[in-house]
Amino acid sequence: MSSASVLPPPVPSLKNRAVKLGIGLLLAAVVWTVLLGWWLPRWAKGQVEAVASQTLGIPVTLAELTVQPWTLTVGLKGLTVGTPKAELLQVPEAQVQLSLESIWRLTPVVRRVTLERPQLWIERQSAERFNFTDIARRLQSPPSQPSAEPARFAVYNIRVHQGLVRYSDRVLQQEHRVEALNIGVPFISNLPSFISVEVQPLLEARVDGSALRMSGRSLPFSEGLRSTVDLNWRGVDLAQWLRAARPFMPPDLAIDLASGRLDTQLTVNFEERKPPAVATLQIKGGLKVSSLEAAWPARGVQGRWSALDVEGIDAMPLVRKVSVGSVTLSGLALDANARVFTTKKTGVVLAPIRASQPDASRPGVPWAWSVGKVRLAASSLQAETPEGVALPKLGPLTLNMEGLNAHPKAAPATLALTVLDEHGGQLHVQGVVTPMLPLATLKVSASQLQSAPWLAALARSLPWPWRVMSGELSLSTELNYGNDQLGLSNGQLQLTGLKTKASKATALDHVDLARLDVQGVEAAVNLSSANSGLQSLSLATVTLDQLDVQATRDAQGHWVMQPMPSPAAASGAADQAASPSPSSSLPALKLGELRCKACQFQIDDQAVSPAARLSLRQTDLALENISSDLSQTVGFDLNGLGQGQGRLRLAGEVRLQPLMLRSQWAVQGLDLRGAQPYVAPYLNVTLAGAKASINGKLSLDALPGKTSVQDPKAVNVRYVGRLALTDLRTQDSVNQADFLRWRSLSLDGLDVNWQAGALTADLGRIALDDFYGRLIINPSGKLNLGELVKHDAGSESQSLTTPQAQPQPATPPIAIAAAPGSAASAVAAPASAMAGMNLRWQGIKLGKGRVDFTDNFIKPNYSARLTQVEGDVSAVASSKPEPATVRISGQVDDSAPLLITGQLHPLGPRFYTDIQGSAKGIELTRLTPYAGRYAGYAIEKGTLSVTVHYQVDQGKLEAQNQIFLDQLTFGDKVDSPDATSLPVQFAVSLLKNNRGEIDVSLPVSGSLDDPEFSVGGIVWRVIANLVSKAVTAPFSLLMGPGQDELGFVPFEPGDDDLSEAARQRLDTLVAKLSDRPQLKLEATGRADPALDEEGLRQRHVVRLMRQAKAKATEQAFASTVIAPEERGSWLTAAYKAADIKKPRNLVGLAKTLPPAEMEALLKAAAPVDSGSLLTLANRRGDRVKAYLVSKLSPERVLLTASKVGTDPLPDDQGPTTRVQFALK
User: Fold this and answer.
1) Is residue 761 a contact partner of residue 837, using CB atoms and an 8 Å limit?
2) Is residue 1181 part of a domain?
3) Of 1075, 1056, 1073, whose CA–CA distance to 1065 is shortest?
4) DSSP state letter for 1068
5) Is the pTM for the entire model greater than 0.85?
6) Neighbours of 1048 (CB within 10 A)
7) What does the pLDDT look like over 1034-1093, one tens digit per residue?
8) Is residue 659 helix, strand or coil?
9) Number of Cβ atoms within 10 Å of the Cβ of 907
10) Which range of residues forms the domain containing residue 549?
């Protein structure tokens, strides 16, 4: 063996090994760098795109993938998720750096995650679909097994820089942006060693332009999750967010927000605890809403405020606790339109909302809340009424409340409210409230409130027909509320300078009041739903100073200043009154004292003619103890000036249940002319003057057990004292001539007592002084005093002073003969009417009297002018049979002596009288004006002497009227429109003897109980009436009173057919003519161009329609009828068949026209001229004659020439399309 073979191998030097190690490391570094830095990104890029695209279901592309092998940093550039037209996510640059710590911790540990300028597009494509919906469904994985160990991880420095999120909602048509998004999470890990390490995340962004910053602290993986978040969101545009939320709001709750900025500074603490402990959530901080301007269109409300500050918020929602340190609202301004609020209707149907289930373990736990301070400052509050009228503006308004607390046992909160209006009015409210009970004790005061602007704005809403022009109101009271009861105490009210006027521009109505003072107001109101309403109201005193009321009743009987309820309200009130609630009760009302000082009242009544004016001036009124308890006695005292200068004083007391009145009357010189319009419908005289004086006592009592005072037997009434009527003057309503007047009529020692239906009356001493009367016995035998009252209220007035103006009866002679009996029965009626009454008088004295007397019961009339009338009527009593002695003397026309003597007993069971009267040598020439006007001739000479004697005893009338006319001679004829057309001269020549004397005796006898008895001399008057009636109104006389005028037969315009009504008129006329064979009838057909021409044209159109229908249906024309529902179709057919000029279209065809235009064209083409009208008049006459001659002899019916035109017709209110009749 050689030595070389046994030598040991050479040992490498340290240097060589270092070189080899370096070369190896270099090679490894190169391989590491090449594999991770060059090959892996190129290989992984495609794999990542493919796997991500397959997993997400949409294209995922990477512009560049880099790996920094020595820093373990993976970089991504140009990451895009989605197609170019529908990108979902775009990340321009991202880096993830791993930590070598992952090797020995055997779990991912990420040192840094950074996303630069990422952009995310979220699109809501339908109600339940987003652009990422498909991705979310693909990524859904089955829930992990409960026993599986959670993956461990640790991530440091998570950072998103300048991110952008775009949200597009196609359903709601909205766009939102979250830009400048910066997210920083320093550390997050669930490694056991890092569980207790606190994480402090940070989020910053601009959300739709508003800056949002959130920072916090959290232990997300500790045994009890504890997190704290600081939310600082500034400048949030509430208007934009509200617009985004508006589609989810009902239309009537949708609010338009023009501006508004929200700033929040909140801290949210959350801690999750193991059961049974309850998790805690606490929100603390404050928020501010500034520069808010909003509108609520559905309710017509607009508002704005400068700032709403909510400070000291400490809320724990999970345990239902919240407290607020202070709430301050400043710069509030509201504008409300009640018209929109009351008229807007909503038909919103909201989708059902799945409400979260309440905590079953804590059912019904109320919220515990408190607010330390509330301050509200409003600059202006403006509102409009439902009618669109602006109410006075309120402002400034301040509201301060302290100590609001929901706890029932908490101390009451204090409240202070001050409101001013634009007219200087002030309202102050101070007190305490306990909102949860609820309870309230408040002091309310108002001052300098101008009532005019407030009531003017509410005028259309309130049923007040007047306007308040001025008035200042002040009030104060104390309010107490609790247990659904509202109490008012220590109330007082003052109203000064009140002036009102009627809403109607032409009315002068007003209510003016210098001062109203109400003291001691106490009230109780029940606010419960079961029996709500006013329970009691008490006023200590009400004082009115210088009240001035002027009221008008219009011609329709409505008071101008009377509230007019709507039909619906009136109907509701009527229904409520008809069926009152059994449990309802009227409130207890009480007024201690009412005083009206220096007041005056005036009423203008235009519902009567002429308009009346009633007044009461310088009046003091006092009422005491007014109450809703009708059993209480009310004292009254009235003192004032009435109509004219009349003084009125009335005092006493009254009670309503049971009815009682004790009163003392003192009236002096009260002008009664104001009563004239009210008595005018019932009297034939006008009250031109009268004054009343009363001095006595009036008492009234309802009898025990009687409830209706309308029963005359239910009350006792007594008046003791004096009555006087002075300066009376009544005039004839027709010609204003004096009818009755006197200077004084007095009843001294008057005692009238009505006891349960029995009348006992002592009229005392009756004195009539300086009087004048117009006494007439009319042609029917009645005194004109009996015609003083109209037979029918509201009928036309009859003259009581002019006999010729009296209408003559138009009845057969037998009926005329019965008329005096009726009159005589009327004379006896008062005696029978007074049966059962105990009446008497002490005596009647007449002085300085004058009476104009006319007896028209016979012809010619007997008239006398009585002057220097003096006389006495002795005492008489209904309980004594002795009649009163009558002696009245005077002069006829101041020359002929007159004497009336006899006996009279008007109060006995049967009327008794035995009166004689005589006058001689009355010159007839003095009656020439009357003879000329009514007879048509003047009187040249003649004298009249008359003697009358009337006896009524035991119902038997015996009257003798002896008339002697000597040398009655008529002169020239007088052209008078009122003169009779009767042959007056011939009548006089028949009555006059060869000595020129007319001596007529008119005896009248019979029983007043028999309606028919003989009247001798009245036959001539009956004949005259009949002759006069035959000349002036033959058909009225023919038919009798109360029947229709038959002087014509009416026809419809253009028609000559006799209607059923016309046939009935003719039948009635035929029946009357059949009873009078000596009469002949002339008939004249008439046509009126103004009416008949249109009627003929209308009939022409109907005839064309009937021809069209008859032709189409093959019916006979005479039996063809056009029904209303088929009129349109046959009008069209008639129009098409008519050979007239028609409107045509461009191609020359006749246009289709509306029915009205077709009818107008057919009417215009109708062949109607003057000859057609004359033919129509002739046909009418022929039709009438044909009908009449079928029932009367032909020679009794004559046709005269027909007339076309509107020449004068009789004033019978009939149509001009007629056949006119005349009797011969």
Assistant:
1) yes
2) yes
3) 1073
4) H
5) no
6) 24
7) 565 455 555 667 778 888 888 888 888 888 888 888 887 776 676 678 888 888 888 877
8) coil
9) 22
10) 465-559+587-606
